[in-house]
Write a structure and sequence with these properties.
There is one protein chain. Helix content is 34%, strand content 28%. It is of the alpha/beta class and 264 residues long.
């Protein structure tokens, strides 16, 4: 069971955004797509979700090409969690989560008992049942992100694609959300996130895909990918990757700050 991106390229007119991207993620794995702004991470996700048609190549879910699936079929496999979401109406948290079950109902049919139970279980699983009657627009950023994750769980798709899930969160909420998402892999979920943060990618990922100029600069485990040369190239800044606890932990530090600390 896996999701596979094979020889995927994409162009906006004559501008080539993605060039021959290849990777595969299996159930129970956490993948971080790491790279600077404008490198093509969001475009890659749109191609994987069938929102954009690749110039070449394709995405396969359980050996089925995404381009052959309609939206309802794809929703059985993949759920998308945006970086932020501002609905027109201030729906309750429960209703927001319940919306994740719409792919399971027929057109113009209301969610039934099973769908309501799925929404309740998703809220309980993420520890936010106490928010169910609160307005989605009246809760914190971290609580909103957990609500969107709960909606994805209620959808019952085993592949979660997340666009910078912790980008707008404070330090505490960032850790809570990332720990929650990472725990889902223990139940067989595939989690694919985009991120600018190499430290976060190192701590939570099983695999890292580093994108640079629309191409794969690096692919492998965090221990293989997070190093001085790759991170410095990726972000065009001189970085020292510092190892701690017998190399079990690595932290990216700007080289000039590290040198200044040594002198003081």
């Amino acid at each position: 069971m896996s999701i596979k991106v094979a020889n995927l390229s994409f162009s906006y007119g004559t501008y080539e955004v993605l060039k021959n991207i290849n990777f595969e993620v299996e159930y129970g794995q956490f993948l971080s797509v790491l790279g600077p702004n404008g490198v093509g991470k969001s475009t890659l996700f749109r191609c994987m979700l069938g929102l954009l048609r690749p110039t070449f190549g394709n995405t396969f879910v359980e050996n089925k090409a995404v381009e052959t699936m309609n939206a309802a079929q794809l929703a059985k496999y993949i759920s998308y969690i945006p970086q932020s979401h501002n609905p027109v109406f201030n729906f309750s948290v429960f209703d927001m989560v319940l919306m994740g079950t719409t792919a399971q109902t027929k057109n113009f049919s209301a969610p039934g008992k099973i769908q309501n139970e799925q929404a309740e279980l998703a809220l309980e699983r993420l520890g936010i049942s106490h928010l169910k009657n609160r307005g989605y627009g009246n809760i914190s950023g971290g609580e909103r992100q957990l609500t969107l994750i709960a909606r994805a769980i209620a959808q019952q798709a085993k592949i979660l694609v997340m666009d910078e899930p912790s980008a707008n969160l404070d330090f505490g909420n960032k850790i809570r959300v990332m720990k929650t998402v990472h725990n889902l892999t223990q139940d067989g979920y595939i989690v694919i996130q985009s991120t600018h943060d190499p430290d976060q990618a190192y701590f939570y990922s099983d695999k890292i895909l580093a994108l640079y100029n629309g191409e794969v600069l690096g692919w492998g485990t965090p221990q293989e990918i997070i190093c001085d040369s790759l991170i410095s190239t990726l972000y065009d800044i001189n970085i020292d990757v510092c190892s701690m606890h017998n190399d079990n932990v690595r932290v990216c530090v700007p080289a000039d700050i590290k040198d200044k600390k040594r002198r003081t």
